[in-house]
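Figure-free illustration: sequence to structure, shown twice.
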Amino acid sequence: MNARTVLVLALVWCGACGGSADDEDPKPACLDVTPLLGTWEGNYMQVSTLHSYPMILEVQKVKDCTCSGVVRWPTLSNSITAMEGYADNQYYYFTEATLLQGSSTLILKGTYVATLLSGQATGLGKDQLGGNWYFPDQNPFKPPYTAYPHGGIYTVVKK
């Protein structure tokens, strides 16, 4: 078989298999961050102490795959932190970048990893955002894993 015959057979085979990868719908670069806009209220539980704290997440701006706003901690000296976030095509990520007001005992620059459940899925009629919070030096996606590899668990509901 000569090279030309091999090339023609390869092209025919590719066509029979459904074409090229270019014909497939590409995965989105990120989850849509628009549904995050607004105020979310709920609780954060510190795993090491099992203490629960009310938290209010206010997503004030969204653009492309990013968002920003503030996190309010009413029972922790009315602390307010600046929040920055982004999404990939699977999760939402947030970090409290700076303390704007309140208690200096808050740990900044940890990572919140979240999933979004629609109001229909929760049965509450309201969207719910929740997941784990990881200390600044932890990578939530790399071992070593322990029984509690994260610093806290949180759930907030859209108001």
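We now fold a second protein in the same way, so the two outputs can be compared directly.
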Amino acid sequence: MDQTPTHSAAGGLHCLGDLAPPAEVTQGYAQMVSLPDHAIQALLPLLDAVLQAPQGDHAAAAQQFATQHRVDVTYVLAALQTCNYLLRQAAALNVSAEEFQQDLDTLGPGVAGPAQLLLPAYRDVTAWLRNHILEDTLADHGNVLTAVDWRVDQVHASNRGAALDARVVHLRLTYRSGDEIKNLSLQLTPNAVATLSDLLSQFSGHESTATGEDRPPA
């Protein structure tokens, strides 16, 4: 689907750099707002899945949704594609919630359904998307840490020495290398833990936008 914004003197959207939306987005938005309000509000779990896996096959879930709500499945898919596109564009350009609401008003004046669906979690969702944009940017040039799992063991003795009585932290680092997901396991001695703790304490005062899990906030 061609979703290239077009230059326009009027009707431009903040999330498209003040350009007019492509015809497919305008049409998709019109199809979305033609859905019953209860169906629009129920789209959130499906939209969550699309945001997590934009290249995935969501046709079966959309068909089940359409059957449940007695609506046209093509309208459901159009709504999901349009919301996904608008949110990703807004995140890429760091559009504020107020500006995004103006964009929705431009696309569908006087229509409340899309705003009620997208605005409550807008800041959290776009922060999550922007974190993935940063990861993608860094992955273009090297490995990117994406997750950390850990456990703590007590080492009492080994064939190398007695009465060691040391707490050892086991780290399992998950990182992206290009398009691949890889893992690296490390064991940290108490001295290494102290060094890492000192490093992390330098960033403890910075505001974090991490959601705690690799999925869009609901």
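Summary for the second example: The CA atoms of residues 16 and 89 lie 7 Å apart.
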